[in-house]
Design brief:
- The complex is a heterodimer of chains A (116) and B (110).
- Helices cover 0% and strands 54% of the residues of chain A.
- Chain A has 116 residues and is mainly beta.
- In chain A, strands 2, 4, 5, 6, 9, 10 and 11 form a 7-stranded mixed sheet that branches.
- In chain A, a hairpin with a 2-residue loop joins strand 7 and strand 8.
- Chain A starts with a strand and ends with a strand.
- Chain B is mainly beta and 110 residues long.
- In chain B, 0% of the residues lie in helices and 57% in strands.
- In chain B, strands 2, 4, 5, 9, 10 and 11 form a 6-stranded mixed sheet that branches. Chain B has a 5-stranded antiparallel sheet with strand order 1-3-8-7-6, with no helix packed on it.
- In chain B, a hairpin with a 2-residue loop joins strand 6 and strand 7.
- The N and C termini of chain B lie far apart (41 Å).
- Classes of the chains: A mainly beta (116), B mainly beta (110).
Chain lengths: 116, 110
Amino acid sequence: DAGVIQSPRHEVTEMGQEVTLRCKPISGHDYLFWYRQTMMRGLELLIYFNNNVPIDDSGMPEDRFSAKMPNASFSTLKIQPSEPRDSAVYFCASSAPSGGKREKLFFGSGTQLSVL
Amino acid sequence: KQEVTQIPAALSVPEGENLVLNCSFTDSAIYNLQWFRQDPGKGLTSLLLIQSSQREQTSGRLNASLDKSSGRSTLYIAASQPGDSATYLCAAGGNTPLVFGKGTRLSVIA
């Protein structure tokens, strides 16, 4: 199994530009999570999906952030317009159906986002 | 709202030493407690998962314990090695997705 795949690994952009982060969960997993990691705040949950449906987006910091999951094998996190304070590592994670959100999470390698 | 705290933030030990990493959580109504390892520039890898009905889990040189009543978990690493150097994060799972601590950055010196 290839694990959770995220792209790109690194993204450098200028303030005001649109940024799209991509995630392919492990096949068969029905929960998908987007987390953001910074030194100051640690790992924060942004949004999570179950069977492609957004369940809780209360962690999305502003309307500039949006996430979609058009099918079971693909999700995107979009920031428009981007700001320097959005600079962080963004992780995608998925979990297996046997235990849902209460079971083991598998993380991707993350996208290091730098907004200049 | 669940809060997870890990102390210390960083720890340096000589190779071969046994060590304990601490994790505390504010809401004891958890379903499980998980420990993860994160290497620099990498994602998180799950090490151990303790269900709320369990007291401990072991994997090789790692042993994690859980005391729900006191809101504490510990990760014990036996005979530490330089390859154990990484950041270790604990996370509490309840009715909401996992809430993470900020981690303990461990350095094992050869």
